[in-house]
Task: inverse folding
């Protein structure tokens, strides 16, 4: 048996290699129904930290693709934010509304613990701080717990808000969002906190979400206007803020999108990075790279890892304004897609860290 040949042609190994991942752990437990994937992208700057997402993926290949992209994004996010952390992520395949149980999360916790601190988990889409409590019964390598740093959503939203203001400064000459028409796609935890900041400043806010009850509640609470899912890209707007799942910047949406800025909290916003990042640049739309603008959440988690205060995380996330301003300014000056600029900046920090 030619083992070397088999490994070299294994699509999973090839995919890991193409994105430069260190490790993937596939997790399965029939007793609890757990099916999960933990991906560790890089640990040059420190242990890999990234949340766990629970989602009903169409198939396991989609789940693998998602966790690989998300974990790589965490490496860049932590590096560009000057955090002593590497990048990792986990996905649990399943319906977060019907499949959650203490047994499932405790079993997942044991898988996390088997990595001996190489990966630190936290909550992400479909996961709550209370779910992390069950995980913490089996491992110490978990953050975002109640009574500690807690839900990272408020800090994620605040950092996104600051990054949005930096983009407005470049595009419109002022970082004031008063009177700007902003569409927030996804009014979950992060999206709702972002809406609150925007409405407080006097922005004209549109919201869209797969949950109609969420749209009604958030609209009534903050004075936003709900729009249907199928009319999002028909809206004239100053800023488009994707705050749900990724891939919303693609061939279909780009042909319709009418805005000056894309700045939101979702991960992996570009359907195909090299194609759609360049397309935004060519259309004259400023793009705040997702892993740079939504880094407030991991700053919040880092504060728990290092025993720092919540105030430290808020002060740190305010500096996302400067990071995004630097990235987008360079992008405009060099006529290079902003995500490429941001990745180069992150890689420079990683390379510098590897030489210490």
Result:
């Amino acid at each position: 048996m030619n083992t070397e040949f088999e490994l070299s042609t294994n699509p999973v190994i090839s995919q890991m290699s193409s994105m430069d991942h260190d490790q993937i752990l596939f997790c399965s437990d029939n007793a609890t129904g757990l099916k999960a994937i933990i991906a560790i992208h890089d640990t040059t700057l420190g242990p890999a930290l990234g949340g766990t997402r629970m989602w009903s993926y169409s198939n396991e290949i989609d789940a693998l693709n998602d966790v690989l992209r998300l974990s790589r994004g965490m490496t860049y996010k932590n590096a560009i934010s000057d955090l002593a952390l590497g990048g990792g992520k986990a996905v649990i395949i399943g319906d977060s509304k019907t499949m959650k149980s203490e047994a499932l999360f405790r079993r997942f916790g044991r898988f996390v613990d088997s990595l001996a601190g190489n990966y630190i988990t936290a909550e992400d889409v479909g996961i709550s701080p209370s779910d992390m409590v069950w995980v913490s019964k089996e491992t110490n390598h978990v953050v975002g717990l109640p009574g500690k740093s807690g839900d990272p959503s408020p800090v994620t939203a605040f950092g996104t808000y600051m990054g949005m203001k930096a983009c407005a400064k470049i595009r419109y000459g002022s970082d004031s969002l008063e009177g700007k028409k902003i569409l927030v796609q996804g009014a979950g935890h992060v999206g709702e906190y972002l809406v609150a900041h925007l409405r407080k400043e006097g922005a004209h806010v549109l919201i869209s979400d797969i949950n109609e009850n969420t749209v009604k509640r958030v609209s009534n609470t903050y004075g936003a206007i709900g729009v249907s899912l199928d009319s999002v890209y028909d809206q004239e707007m100053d800023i488009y803020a994707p705050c749900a799942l990724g891939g919303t910047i693609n061939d279909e949406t780009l042909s319709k999108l009418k805005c000056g800025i894309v700045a939101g909290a979702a991960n992996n916003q570009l359907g195909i990075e090299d194609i759609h990042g360049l397309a935004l640049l060519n259309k004259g739309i400023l793009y705040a790279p997702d892993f740079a603008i939504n880094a407030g959440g991991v700053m919040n988690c880092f504060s728990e890892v290092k025993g720092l205060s919540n105030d430290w995380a808020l002060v740190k996330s305010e500096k996302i304004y400067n990071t995004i301003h630097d990235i987008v300014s360079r992008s405009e000056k060099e006529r290079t897609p902003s995500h490429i600029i941001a990745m180069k900046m992150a890689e420079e920090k990683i390379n510098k860290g590897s030489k210490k």
The chain has two domains: 3-72+85-136, 153-350. The CA atoms of residues 262 and 287 lie 5 Å apart.
